[in-house]
Here is the input.
Amino acid sequence: MIDCHTHTYYSHDSKQDPKETIPYAIEKGIDYLAFTDHCDKDCLFNEEYVKTIRQIDLDSCFLELNNLKDQYKNKLEIAVGLECGFMNQATPMYEEILKKYPTDITINSVHLVDFIDCYFKEFFAKKTKEEAYTKYLEAIYNSLFVPYHYDVIAHIGYVVRKAPYDNKSLEYKDYSDIIDSILKTIIEKGKALEINSHAEGTGSLTLPNPEIIKRYKELGGELITFGSDAHKKEKLLFEYDNISELLKSLNFKYLFKYLEHNPIAVKI
Ligand SMILES: [Zn+2]
Ligand SMILES: [Zn+2]
Here is the structure.
């Protein structure tokens, strides 16, 4: 069992001590665990978020997590990574950071669209569902072309989590052109599509939803990761069994884990 996307107290929105996560993960039988704390340089371009969102202390984070990786190397495979919040203006900062702090796995995420986190209501003000979702998907598409190295595209459909619509599902058929462009680019670039189980409130088991995962497979996509996006240890491997079944039913045979940016196949 592998989990490629988790958070610790180095993320602004988590209080989880990694020293408690690791024994918990070992007890649960996890074989591989990636810590991917938020690096939110995108938030530096919104005055309010500058005040309210704590930036990661990279020195302390990499020191502690790499020490833990070493300390537990015979008991649990630990990867140290980052989740970088995409914004064009922030790319030079990420280039510097990723040079200075080598990761095993780098997750490329879109949280902010038009300088607003699309997890917040204000993002949806004065937008139709179609406008909001199209802008979000365009941001994902643009994020695929950043100049720094990344391995995984996170949680496509994040915009749905707090969307204020009666029918808020992001259906493949309604956005098929842009979704196909995204999936084809992921495949061409040799990146992995993350299957994220932090999907509460979306009406789907996974982000992206199974229709989109199915389309990825149809287009020839093989690289997928599982990410619980756990902000507390109890959420590690959330829905892992159900998602494994789903992936098998879609004819996937392997999940992938990353060490020093190399994808390693693990049988589902
Ligand atoms: Zn995220
Ligand atoms: Zn995350």
Observations:
- Residues 74 and 99 are 28 Å apart (CA to CA).
- Residues 2-267 form a domain with the TIM Barrel fold (CATH 3.20.20.140).
